[in-house]
């Protein structure tokens, strides 16, 4: 018999070792997240999945579920903080949805809609980040990077290549690629890599297919994020 | 062969020698990068190529680590790299004017390298010389007590390209400034005393069971020492001196009881990453009482069954590396380190020193361990905790320098003796690093329970407006609270005690600390990475006179978010200086809210200054015609 905890009053069953987010996902309850991906070890950096456990805030992607926990997630207080974090990610980079080919498939955009974000609120940083079009099949647009590290983990843990890494510190943290030129075209990266498909935003883009699926018919155009069924959240 | 080829061959040889000396071990990445930079002045693309070839690790790993630490340079920064300590105490002692003077002398702009590639001048976080500031680092060597004359002397040495090794010794002289010594600073322990006492300790009857564990695991047998020493630490009621105050014996016991997998060993780490602005007592302990610190580490190793130790020394204390290594070498010769220490069969332990490279966050124990493993200093997700899964996933204790020194004293004199000093909840003494507005800045050791007022009287501080206890991540208190005491039951502290007289602007103090946290945020989690940067912008906006009540409300909202959502203590405490000064010195903020309604921070005329500079113009036509009747 599996053990249970409560999430916003609802009883959630979990297997020993599962995190709160994993158990919620399996039960079909959506907790917003950006750096979490079911196929990778939880990272705990974006903090969007923060919940309150017995009155204390913690990232639900890294916190193991324990029997009898009382977890709050979908409350106005927590959603307001998640909204603020999403706004921070928007102003930190250069995110212009109308001209971004990821629009409609972007998890950051979908999460902003989900949380009812109406403006970016904070002053924009307008960082100066060059794009990298050196690879024949993939464009890197660093302007949209939210430093979730999914491509870093995918390339290292699945592809065994270490094509991506984070460098810098603090607000200057940025994504780098594994070549002395610093260009993706000079790495062994290919379209078949796992790292090519994990970017939740519009940094790693397959060339020549940006608008193959028209706006209006994309993932989150059909169903908003969080409206997926059990086990599908990613 | 071209000149470039010859240079490349020489560079490869240098890198190869350093990598070889470090056992080709990528977990030593931070040490390797430091040594390469010391040899080559910066980490050039060619140096990284050579490192990649020699270490056989991805380039991303090398650049990721190098990019994290403030003292590693992926761009050339000159042969002489001067970094002014920019703590609030340096500011109060006039470091800005001195920096300007040096830049003028050398014809350079702050933050930029001179055109001939000779020199750069910039600022860095507190270098731990607050009692003898203003201070700077030149190629990581510390210089204190800066004056206009010293600045001119330094400028002349740089201009004449005198090698650093030939600069006058007196420039690098650092004072200990011990003003009040108690049991720890006044101890006359001889090397080995505490260890011999630990060896002689017989276990209580009731402790035989826990002793059995050590026997099963092949720890020193037949002496009962390990469990007995743990018991003394417990009786002493020793709590961690790094600020958090965790019970030392509990930490040690958890490590001792943590299961070892095949091939693993237990690890003792001494946290000498004294990065909290205003703290410098570990520098003095390691200068004057290094034997006690190493002995405390060895006592800990004996108690928990550890065989490997690290001293993680902040990069700002580079000047201590050679003296400390010499002491370790002497201790090995005296059989106080190494195999079968003091003839106890199986008591094997040695200590290695790792230098940090300019990252305050590495004072957080899990970030420190990441750094020891040669990685970016990002705090880990916990649990698991280091006591079970620490350095290279092995059971690890991390304690402060002062905690280990106290442990040595306890081993020698007993837990009951120690518990009698201080207060009921805070046993023993605490070393304070006193700086700021007072007649006698320096090191003061008191039994716990001393009042803030007493410390102020002893160091000769009058007209005091505020004291920042335990640095920016601690608390800022006003005169009405000066009867509060130093101790875990009232004001816990890692040791910083920074004094501000009534002439100081507490808003500017808080703004300096906000800049510090923004600079030191590791960037891992969203709230701290972006939140500290936003907080800095808002405080700067108030400073520039564009602040309104709206901005003040924004600051308060950010504080809440940082506290609740951040990944580690850095983010949780980053807003403390602001919260404390708002609560106690509100007028300092109100004075800054010069606008009634929201006003943008962006100043269009100011934004044109670059264009004016480039065109060499500053006439009326090069300025925006002001609609508000200001200067045109």
CATH topology of the largest domain in chain B: Rossmann fold
- At CATH level 2, the architecture of the largest domain in chain B is 3-Layer(aba) Sandwich
CATH superfamily heading of the largest domain in chain B: NADH-ubiquinone oxidoreductase 51kDa subunit
Poorly predicted sequence stretches spanning 5 or more consecutive residues of chain A: 229-234
Main interface: chain pair and counts: A-B, 39 and 41 residues
Structural class of chain B: alpha/beta
Quick one: biggest sheet of chain B?
Answer: 6 strands, mixed
**Helical percentage of chain B:** 40-55%
Descriptive notes:
The complex is a heterodimer of chains A (234) and B (632). With 234 residues, chain A is α+β, with helices and mostly antiparallel strands. Chain A contains five helices and ten strands. Chain A has helices spanning 20-26, 76-92, 107-114, 150-158, 219-222, and strands at residues 3-7, 10-14, 50-53, 56-59, 70-72, 131-132, 138-141, 164-167, 174-177, 204-206. A five-stranded mixed beta sheet of chain A has the order 2-1-5-3-4, with helices on one face. Chain A has a three-stranded antiparallel beta sheet with strand order 6-7-10, with no helix packed on it. Chain B is an alpha/beta fold and 632 residues long. Chain B is globular, with a radius of gyration of 26 Å. In chain B, the strands form three sheets. In chain B, strands 5-11-10-14-12-13 form a six-stranded mixed beta sheet. A four-stranded mixed beta sheet of chain B has the order 2-1-3-4, covered by helices on one side.
